[in-house]
Amino acid sequence: MKILAERLRLLRKEKKLSQVEFAKIIGLSTNGYQRYELDERDPVAPVIVEIAKYYNVSADYLLGLTDKR
After folding, report:
1. pLDDT(1) > 90
2. CA 62, 60, 51: angle at the middle one, nearest 5?
3. By the 8 A CB rule, do 38 and 5 touch?
4. How confident is the model at residue 60 (pLDDT cuts 50, 70, 90)?
5. pLDDT tens sequence across 4-59
6. What 3-state class would DSSP assign to 59?
7. Least crowded by CB within 10 Å, which of 6, 49, 54, 68?
8. What is the pLDDT, as a whole number, of residue 37?
9. What is the C-alpha to C-alpha distance for residues 63 and 42, in angstroms, rounded to an integer?
10. How far is residue 52's CA from residue 64's CA, in Å, rounded to a whole number?
């Protein structure tokens, strides 16, 4: 899902985190997280929830259903 990949990258960069750092924060392998940002794989619902909580945004925002964070 291209919009998800773009928003993950944007949010991570806003927090000035590397992919390695953020993967550790949410308990994923670096490679697994990188695949989300490269739009090679979509995260499962529990991972989306954890990402949304960390960035204090809605899952709808991450998934491109709204532009309101």
Report:
1. no
2. 45
3. yes
4. very high
5. 999 999 999 999 999 999 999 999 999 999 999 999 999 999 999 999 999 999 99
6. helix
7. 68
8. 97
9. 10
10. 13
Q: Rounded distance, CA 32 to CA 65, Å?
A: 24
- For Cα atoms 52, 42, 13, give the angle at the middle one, nearest 5 degrees: 50
DSSP string of 23-55, one letter each residue: HHHHT--HHHHHHHHTTS----HHHHHHHHHHH
Residue the block writes with tokens 């991450």: 62
Asked if the model's pLDDT at residue 63 lies above 90, the reply is: yes
In degrees and rounded to multiples of 5, residue 56 shows phi and psi of 55, 45
The alpha carbons of the chain give a radius of gyration, in whole angstroms, of 11
**37 vs 10: CA distance, rounded Å:** 10
